[in-house]
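Meet today's protein:

…
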Amino acid sequence: MSVYITSTGRFLPGPAISVEDVEKVLGAVHGKPSSLRVQIQKANKIQTRHYAIDENQQTTHSNTEMAAKAAEQCLDRAFVGREKVGMLAVASTQGDLPAPGMASMVQAELDLPEIEILTTHGICSSSIMALKAAWNSMRLEEHDAALVLSSELASRLLKKQRYEAATTSTLLQNALTSAPNFCAGCCLMEQVHCCCKTSQLQRASV
C-alpha cells in the first residue's frame, strides 16, 4: 500500500507582527531593549511573526485551540469525510496541561468519535514521529485515513515577566545579567513554534 498526503491546513494566531515590533508584544525585560535583537533578526531574515499573546502578555489562544483550527481547515479541504479518520496524531513540545495528552484535548475540541489517538513530544522530532506513526498505521492497513497535527505555543514562555522574575534571583543575577539578550535569542524560534501545521493522509492502492 502507498500512503499520500491529500490535504493540509494551518492556523497563525493574531496579526502579522513586524520584526521591529516584536518587543512591543513580548515586552522589554526591565524596560531595556535587547542589544542583540537587530543582529539576530538580520541573521534569520524573518520579516514577520505571529504570537498567541497580546501586547499585555495575555494569552489569546491555547495550543489545543490552534491545533484544532488548523485541523478544521485541513478537514474542510479534504475529499473524505471526517468520519473516515481512524487515527489522530498530535505533536507538540508542550501541551496546555500536564495531563491528559494533547491528542485527547484536540479530539474533544474537534468532537471526533472514539478513534486511535497519539501524542508525541520531542521538540523538533515530535512532528516527524507523529507523521511516521500515522503513515505506519495506514501502511499496515489499520486505518483508511489519519489526521496529523503539529502545534507549538512558545509565546507564553517568552513573556518578559519570566525573565524579570529570573533576574531578581541573587543566584541567577550574574548568569542572566544580559537577560534582554537571552530573550531575543529565544525569539529566534517563535515564528516556527507559533505555526500550526496539519496534514491528512489517505491510503491508496499501488
Observations:
- The CA atoms of residues 91 and 150 lie 5 Å apart.
- Confidence is low (pLDDT under 50) at residues 176-206.
- The chain has one domain: 2-204.
- The radius of gyration is 19 Å.
